[in-house]
Specification:
80 residues, mainly alpha, 4 helices
Length: 80
Amino acid sequence: MNTKLTLNIDQNIIEEAKSYAKNNSVSLSKLIENYLLSITTKDSKKTKISPLVESLTGVISLEDTDYKKEYADYLSKKYS
């Protein structure tokens, strides 16, 4: 059920929001509704990780690696 809501918002913010909504092909009402839904949903604080990403977690060990030196060595070999 949709209900009308009246808000008092700074004119500049309204114009920017309208522009954003237009550029993203969504109505301003839907944009605000989605925002309010995202901050009021209890599960929104817990980001769900896909099984694929979870299975890849910890696969690569990156401890004690000097990334800049390794990259510089790589570039040096590549362009020598």
